[in-house]
Amino acid sequence: MNVADSEIKSLLQSYQTITVYGLSNDPQKPSHYVPVFMREKGWDVIGTYPKEHSVGGFKIYKNLRDVPKESRKFIDVFRSSDKVPEIVDEILELGGTEFLWLQLGISHPEAEKKAEASGIKVVSNRCLIIEHKRFF
User: Fold this and answer.
1) Nearest to residue 100, comparing CAs of 126, 67, 123, 84?
2) So what's the pLDDT on residue 52?
3) Nearest to residue 115, comparing CAs of 96, 94, 100?
4) pLDDT for 45-65, tens place per residue?
5) How far from chain centre, in Å, is Cα 65?
6) Rounded to two decimals, what is the model's pTM?
7) Phi, psi of 4 (to 5 degrees)
8) How far apart are CA 129 and CA 54, in angstroms?
9) Fewer beta carbons within 10 Å, N or C terminal of the chain?
10) What's the CATH code, domain 5-135?
11) Residue 1 pLDDT > 90, yes or no?
């Protein structure tokens, strides 16, 4: 994580669109209700999920490659920590990402360093709901 605690609020305010990597179709999972919360707080939220779904009314893409580049600036990841290296590789290959958020319980120091070395701001092991409630 290369973002200081004091920077989180201003970074969140800097982005109007969040792409959720792994936006679930199960309303009981954090990978669904966290994006719902952020949308209710004013962010545009789109998602990626390998299976087509329309739960929650989100625009869902099958993969990150299909997400318009301008919507890939802020990526919020809901995948297990062992998947983070391949996600970082995908992000770096596609380009356009400025801010990578790894949700609570998700971290991978080596992959985070790789993203940071490419100029991406990284927050790991933090929940957007908790941080939003803390700063707003």
Assistant:
1) 123
2) 79
3) 100
4) 999 998 877 878 899 999 999
5) 15
6) 0.95
7) -70, 150
8) 22
9) C
10) 3.40.50.720
11) no
Sheet with 59-61, strands from edge to edge, namely: 59-61, 44-48, 17-21, 74-77, 99-102, 121-123
Structure tokens, 47: 């998602």
What is the length of the chain? Answer: 136
| Residue that is written with structure tokens 């929940």 in the block | 127
Read off the pLDDT of residues 100-127 as tens digits, 9 standing for 90 and up.
999 999 999 999 999 999 999 999 999 9
Single-letter amino acid, residue 97: T
Distance CA 75, CA 77 (A): 6
Whole-angstrom distance, CA of residue 87 vs CA of residue 96: 14
Percent share of the chain, pLDDT over 90: 91
